[in-house]
Design goal:
Length: 310
Amino acid sequence: MAEGARRLVVATRRSPLALWQAERVRARLEAAHPGLAVALLPLSTRGDELLAASLASAGGKGLFVKELEAALADGRADLAVHSMKDVPAELPGGFVLAAIAERDDPRDAFCSARYRALAEMPPGARVGTSSLRRAAQIRAAHPRLAVVPLRGNVETRLAKLERGECDAAVLAAAGLKRLGLADRIRSHLSPQESLPAPGQAALGIECLAAREDVRRLAAAIEDPVAAACVRAEREVSRALGGNCALPLAAWAEARGERLALRALVASPDGARIARAECEGAAAEPEALGAEAARLLRRGGADGILAMLRR
């Protein structure tokens, strides 16, 4: 509990990457508010424990945040730190995103001891990924490759790659770099090759809507540019009812007072992809995200969504 706004408890997942991210937020908060003490509360989530099933079949991205939200609700923690790509487009009632902090490299990364890029892999070679979004885009661009499921934290997935469970793996570049594993990246996938997930590489701070004290403290470390981009991307997902069962990508770039937004919705096999590009005011990111969702629907997203609901 916060004591006179001089102490905060941060709920976080136990994975090395999540702890690194929570430590970064702790350092930013303490630097922004001299005299404030911030403690971490590491928790295990269902998403970390259910490694045999895909996220889509196990319940979606909310599996990574529910236990942290429970800690907020019962007073064990004052705020929670998330990878924004893991946060569902709709938060439960009573919770808010108090801030979206800095964003690192949002690109996907190609990791392999044998190959330098997807284009170099021979027919039948296995590419591991835990993401339907990545899988759909790989299948669309490289139909000769075999995409195989690869769950677990970053270190676990790299260990599976080393054991030969796949010939290459595609992971978030930011996670590898944050853990000091940049040397495992053979190449980066451009947004044209693999459009990132909404919020990828950005850190989010969640708290109870009623905690105005926590919201004020968190606001000091918000990155306005990252926040605008991520809010535009998340609105695409929200407008389409996005979840882990929907291969959806959205990525916004700031261009002065404007945002340029690209988005796509794909069938899991990559056979059908609806794409959209639009630009709008950085001050109205949700309106831009809604426009991208409208363009996606006009480009065939409704047919893909209907197929996924069967």
